[in-house]
């Protein structure tokens, strides 16, 4: 959320060195994606998930004969999962979550629960009143629909029913990676998301490294993680 695609260049380089062919895309309204969110923006999670399908369609010729992984960080992983749930896309061979979870307030340590609930719901209210989330110290500028859906998951521990996204129908193998010192997406939030994926095999990996890590800094020390992702790719049904 609010992180431009260019931030992931170190990860893309490491994935390439590990033998993969990475393509990085901005979420709608972030980075080089225009227009920037404003009061006229009506989109939410469902639209972001459909954008994943548009990226895959645009790459269809280049993907021919190759296994395809979707790798998402934080919000990016959520919308990748929603794409698979909404579309039933059978052309994707693996789904990689890196620091991805449902930000359900009850999944956080006791002292942080009131803070998470208060932050998420106040941002949703502010976004509704202003017509857009300005990005004040969190998440970057976002359409109010994105913040509405995000706040719903934080309050209820599931995606809004209006998304028509039965996660229990997803059958794409998953690699769920949690990160050392991640205050935004602790392992319990990742498990909350994985609990909805009842029909697919899930591998779990907790990533630690000598370099300092957190919800964002892992990108700068992603070499060993890229090797793990490449190995997961080779275990896909279509190697």
Please describe what this structure looks like.
The chain is 38% helix and 11% strand. The protein is α/β, with parallel strands linked by helices and 239 residues long. It has one domain: Alpha/Beta hydrolase fold, catalytic domain (Rossmann fold, 3-Layer(aba) Sandwich), CATH 3.40.50.1820. Strands 1-2-5-6 form a 4-stranded parallel β-sheet, sandwiched between helices. The chain has a two-stranded antiparallel sheet with strand order 3-4. The model has no long low-confidence stretch (mean pLDDT 96).
Features of the shown structure:
Rossmann fold; alpha/beta; four-stranded parallel beta sheet; two-stranded antiparallel ribbon; 239 residues
Protein topology:
Blueprint (H helix, E strand, L loop, with lengths): L8 H9 L27 H14 L1 H4 L5 E5 L1 H13 L6 E5 L14 H18 L1 E2 L8 E2 H13 L17 E6 L7 H8 L7 E6 L15 H12 L5
Parallel strand pairs: 1-2, 2-5, 5-6
Antiparallel strand pairs: 3-4
Helix pairs in contact: 1-8, 2-4, 5-6
């Amino acid at each position: 959320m609010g992180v431009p695609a260019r931030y992931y260049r170190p990860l893309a380089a490491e994935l390439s060195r590990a033998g993969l062919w990475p393509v990085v895309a901005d979420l709608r309204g972030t980075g080089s994606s225009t227009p920037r969110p404003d009061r006229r923006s009506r989109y939410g999670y469902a639209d972001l998930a459909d954008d994943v399908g548009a990226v895959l369609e645009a790459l269809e010729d280049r993907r021919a004969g190759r296994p395809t992984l979707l790798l998402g960080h934080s919000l990016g992983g959520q919308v990748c999962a929603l794409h698979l749930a909404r579309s039933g896309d059978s052309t994707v061979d693996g789904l990689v979550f890196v620091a991805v979870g449902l930000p359900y307030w009850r999944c956080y340590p006791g002292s942080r629960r009131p803070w998470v609930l208060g932050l998420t719901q106040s941002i949703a209210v502010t976004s509704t009143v202003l017509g857009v989330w300005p990005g004040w110290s969190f998440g970057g500028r976002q359409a109010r629909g994105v913040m509405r859906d995000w706040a719903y998951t934080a309050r209820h521990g599931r995606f809004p029913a209006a998304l028509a996204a039965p996660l229990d129908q997803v059958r794409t193998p998953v690699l769920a990676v949690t990160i050392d010192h991640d205050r935004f997406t602790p392992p319990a939030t990742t498990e909350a998301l994985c609990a909805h994926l009842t029909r697919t095999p899930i591998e779990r990996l907790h990533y630690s490294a000598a370099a300092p890590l957190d919800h964002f800094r892992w990108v700068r020390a992603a070499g060993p993680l890229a090797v793990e992702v490449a190995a997961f790719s080779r275990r896909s049904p279509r190697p």
